[in-house]
Design goal:
This protein has 415 residues and is mostly helical. It contains 19 helices and no strands. Among the domains are: 8-86 and 374-414, no CATH class; 152-306, no CATH class. Helix 4 (88-102) packs antiparallel against helix 18, helix 5 packs across helix 18 (337-372) and helix 10 packs antiparallel against helix 12 (225-248). InterPro entries: DUF445 (IPR007383).
């Protein structure tokens, strides 16, 4: 592994700065040569020669120091040079230890989390409808991607087996009892009875001829037809009248009996072991039915298709629901200080746990990554990152050396 290459502009800037620093050193050398060749070492020539000589010393010393960070100067294996290539792994370990000790601490991380106001900022972002739409789209892509890698044959069997196991273990009787109680308390059972009675009345009226012919078939041959007509009309009218009375009278005795029977059934479903056993046996027989088992085997495929199709359609109820819930969650995080405080507290606890138990593991990413870097390539690219600024050391050394040499020579002349 190597560090990503910097852009070409950084490389050109490094070349320019090296040329500038080297140029100043060459200028100092030329001035020194001229002073030695032309000057006599006295007066102004002495000052100029002293400044040029000290400038060369300072520039060369700083060139050596800067170069020694990245490579051996003049490719000579001088001790304590090529520091970065030689100490690359130690630098990585030291940096990892420094980060672990001074950055990945519970106090510092907790302080930064508190200062970041994460719940409020996340809430503001999520409350934006455009961002909520983006979240729904990303979740849709995630669902589609997850669905594409799942094996339908294995999951179909697993889901069917899970559903069958849960249904077999489910005690249905208490659920049916609660359902009957709820239906009776809401009066829906009376509405169902009314609809059933009226439907029966319509059915009898629409099939009056069928019933009349059946009576004629069952009646003895010696009974006249007019007698059958009178008997059928009277009986049919009595049945219809009774059904009409029950359907139109809320306080009819049959309705009270019906209500009492349903409530008694609910009670027996809760308390009567025999009744509960009958329900359990009926449930098991139903689960063994081929059509029920076939339906259970299609649960995964149907559910997957429903979720995937709904997630892929931008106008589906699923996508709209996710967007609405996202906006609502963002508004709660943004506007409810209590919820925000709880989320912030949870983040503090989670971050504290992570940095307490995993800070060294997190910091070790730095040292392990540095260890995998190529030595020479790392040195070259680090030089490209910081080398331009280091060239100012050479420039400063050349300039400061000249000033220091000039000052020292002036002081020596003064005394």
């Amino acid at each position: 592994m190597t560090i990503p290459l910097p852009d070409a502009a950084r490389r050109r800037a490094l070349v320019r700065m090296k040329a500038t620093a080297g140029g100043l050193l060459v200028v100092a050398a030329i001035v020194f040569v001229v002073c030695r060749a032309v000057g006599d070492g006295h007066g102004g020539w002495g000052y100029l020669q002293a400044a040029a000589e000290a400038s060369m010393v300072g520039g060369l010393a700083d060139w050596f120091a800067v170069t020694a960070l990245f490579r051996h100067p003049l490719r000579l294996p001088i001790p304590h040079t090529a520091i970065i290539p030689r100490k690359k792994d130690q630098i990585g370990e030291g940096l990892a230890g420094f980060v672990s000790e001074h950055f990945l601490t519970e106090a510092i991380v907790g302080e930064r989390l508190a200062a970041a106001h994460v719940p409020q900022r996340v809430g503001e972002w999520l409350a934006d409808p455009d961002h909520a739409r983006q979240v729904a789209a990303e979740l849709s892509n995630a669902v589609s991607g997850l669905a594409s890698v799942l094996r339908d044959d294995e999951l179909r069997t697993a889901v069917a087996g899970f559903a069958d196991k849960q249904l077999r273990e489910l005690d249905v009787s208490p659920l049916l009892a609660r359902l009957l109680d709820a239906v009776c308390d809401s009066g829906q059972h009376q509405a169902v009875l009314t609809a059933t009675l009226r439907g029966t009345m319509r059915f009898l009226d629409e099939n009056r001829g069928v019933f009349r012919r059946r009576l004629a078939d069952e009646s003895p041959e010696w009974v006249p037809d007019w007698v059958d007509d009178r008997v059928f009309a009277k009986g049919f009218s009595a049945v219809q009248s009774f059904l009409a009375d029950v359907s139109m009278q809320p306080e009819h005795e049959l309705r009270h009996t019906y209500d009492a029977k349903l409530r008694d059934l609910a009670r027996r479903l809760r308390e009567d072991p025999e009744q509960r056993a009958k329900v359990e046996q009926a449930k098991l027989q139903l689960l063994e039915h081929p059509q029920v088992r076939e339906w259970l085997s299609t649960l995964w495929v149907r559910g997957k298709a429903l979720v995937v199709d709904g997630a892929a359609d931008p106008d589906s109820d699923l996508r709209r629901t996710v967007q609405s819930l996202t906006v609502r969650a963002g508004q709660v995080l943004r506007d409810d200080p209590g919820i925000g405080a709880k989320v912030d507290e949870a983040l503090q606890r989670m971050s504290g746990h992570i940095v307490t138990y995993y800070a060294e593991d997190l910091a070790s990413v730095i040292s392990s990554t540095v260890q995998r870097w190529d030595t020479e390539e790392t040195s070259r690219r680090l030089e490209l990152q910081v080398g331009r600024d280091l060239q100012f050391i050479r420039i400063n050394g050349t300039v400061v050396g000249a000033l220091a040499g000039l000052a020292i020579y002036a002081i020596s002349q003064l005394f």
